[in-house]
Amino acid sequence: MKVNELIEKTGWKNISTEASLDKEIMGVYVGDLLSWVMGKGEQGQAWITVQSHLNVIAVAVLLEFSCVIIADGVIVPEDVLQKAIEENLAIVLADCSPFECTRKLIEFGY
Amino acid sequence: MQVINQQFIVERDDYANAGKVSSQVKQTLNQIGIPGELLRRVAVACYEAEINMIIHAWGGTIQCTLEDNGELTLTFKDPGPGIPNIDKALTPGWSTASEKARQLGFGAGMGLFNIKRVSDHFDIQTSPQGTTLTIGFLVTS
């Protein structure tokens, strides 16, 4: 599934650049400890987290994640959004918990 | 002959720019055609070491060299305060990160462990005067 299909099916909102929505979601990782994610995350995954600071973008870009799903409707600061746009990284805002986000992605076959 | 020889400065507590050097290193290596899997290993190691300099050390320098025989070396030098117990620092889950660092999602205690796991060569020398971490990767064509 591509990031834009995920958005269509869930109603979650892309708050980054439209250009980043064509990436294929190859899997999912859930976590908020950056070093843990850095060590375990894999290319192409969608990353579900409640962290929304600049370092999230750095980790997601270095690992080449397909998108970052910010759960629980956590507010994403403007400088973080600008960085995501600059890096062509999709930031998907979900108004449900990390657990509910995960459940949704499992329903989609992940 | 050195194909690449770059040096970067990392400032203490500069959370806003954490990962910037790692991105630059990754970009440079990507431009010369380093394969994706190796590129990601280098990026993981570089990021973790860069973060350690920001969180735990008083800043420092990062040097990236690539020799024409394929030896890629990243050297991280800081001026202190040193790592009191290397064995503990290499144990997954053990961390001395500050409350501020933890709030930002750092301090999982996975940094040095991750670096050692993804690198082909790992050496760390530490004293109260500073720490030098040298990691190597073999680039094969």
From TrEMBL, chain A:
- Say which domain of life the source belongs to: Bacteria
Q: What is the protein name given in its UniProt record?
A: DRTGG domain-containing protein
Organism, by scientific name, is: Anaerorhabdus furcosa
Output the lineage of the source organism.
Bacteria, Bacillati, Bacillota, Erysipelotrichia, Erysipelotrichales
TrEMBL record, chain B:
GO molecular function, a single term:
kinase activity
Q: Which domain of life is it from?
A: Bacteria
A UniProt-annotated Pfam family: HATPase_c_2
- Keywords of this protein's UniProt record, alphabetized? Kinase, Transferase
Domain Histidine kinase/HSP90-like ATPase residue range list: 15-135
- Protein name, UniProt field: Anti-sigma regulatory factor (Ser/Thr protein kinase)
- Source organism lineage? Bacteria, Bacillati, Bacillota, Erysipelotrichia, Erysipelotrichales
